[in-house]
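pasting for ref
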Amino acid sequence: MLDAVGYLYDATPFLYLQFVTEDINTIYFLISTLRRFKMKVAFASEEDKGLESRIAYHFGRCPYYVFVDVENGQVKSVETKQNPYFNSHAPGVVPEFIASQGAKVIIAGGMGPRAIDWFNRLGVQPITGVSGVIRDVLNDYLAGKLADAKPCDEYGGR
């Protein structure tokens, strides 16, 4: 049996699925169905190298954000922007910036509990606990291998 919960924001899937099945074919079918949608995914980045950038450990203190438009599981565009709040920021301003860029997902190495709450309230799915090159992390996300957010170590999480 499959228990799938999907939320639509501006006709874009929020992409939260909860599986209660061991049927791998059902899971692959649902993932391939989700890949047909358009979405913008934001990544906290240490570098200005687009998809070849490395994921930053903490989303709010990273120097760059990489925004990737995905349609039908394919990358359509990549844009890197400087973090306008790199040197200092107040609670909520970075999540509001990410949401204002049209992102429905934010992926970072780590994130505090207040930021996770902000993103959830703004309809942006936070994903944490990842590292590596953005291209590889994006592929893992599109394959359905990434889906949760827990506060980083300094907040008693990961």
